[in-house]
Structure formats: C-alpha cells, structure tokens
Amino acid sequence: MNTKRHHKADPAIYQIRLASHLSEPRAAWFEGMTISLEDSGHTLLTGPVVDQAALHGLLRKVRDLGLPLLSVTRLQPGQPDGADDTG
C-alpha cells in the first residue's frame, strides 16, 4: 500500500532585481516582499514565493508596471539575502 504523505513545501525565497528604484505607490504592488533600494539605482525585491504560479504573478506585475527586469534568483536555504551582490 502506498502511504505517501503530501507535504506542502515551504515557500522558496526569491530575489527579483529591477533596473530602477521602485516608488512607494508601486511598492504596494509587492506586498509581502522586502524592498531594498540599492545605491546603484536598482531595487531588490526579496521574499517567499509559494509556487511557480505566484512567481509568474510577480513577474506579471513587473511587466504591467513597465519596470526593467535585471534578474530573478532563487536563494538556496541558508543563503543570506543579497549574497549574489557583486558590488
């Protein structure tokens, strides 16, 4: 008898880097994400994403707002936020 248990996986943590600073009204579109305005002029959105559909929803918001997308990175468990920063 197959007794597999279905566990809801913990959300993955993603970083979405945008090529401009995000204004406060636009930041409201990304509730639940940590928003970091970088000295380089970029914005880094960091937070949990429950599944691929939710990730696509976030990317759709980026598109709908006309924000220039630089990168999308899935952080490994235990990897500190901003660990992929190179300068």
Please summarize what this structure is.
The protein is of the alpha+beta class. 20% of the residues lie in helices and 28% in strands. The chain has helices at 24-27, 52-64; strands at residues 12-18, 34-37, 43-49, 69-74.
Strand order of the largest sheet: 2-3-1-4
Measure the end-to-end span.
54 Å
Helix/strand-derived category reads alpha+beta
Helicity range? 10-25%
User: How are helices and strands ordered from N to C?
Assistant: EHEEHE
Based on Cα principal axes, name the global outline: globular
Residue share in β-strands: 25-35%
Number of helices, counting only DSSP H or I runs of 4 residues or more: 2
Number of strands: 4
Major sheet attributes:
4 strands, antiparallel
Which spans have pLDDT < 50 for at least 5 consecutive residues?
Answer: 83-87
Question: What is the average per-residue confidence, as pLDDT, rounded to a whole number?
Answer: 86
Radius of gyration: 15 Å
Describe the fold and architecture.
This protein is an alpha+beta fold and 87 residues long. It has helices at 24-27, 52-64; strands spanning 12-18, 34-37, 43-49, 69-74. The protein has a four-stranded antiparallel sheet, with helices on one face. A hairpin with a 5-residue loop joins strand 2 (34-37) and strand 3. The model is unreliable at 83-87 (pLDDT under 50).
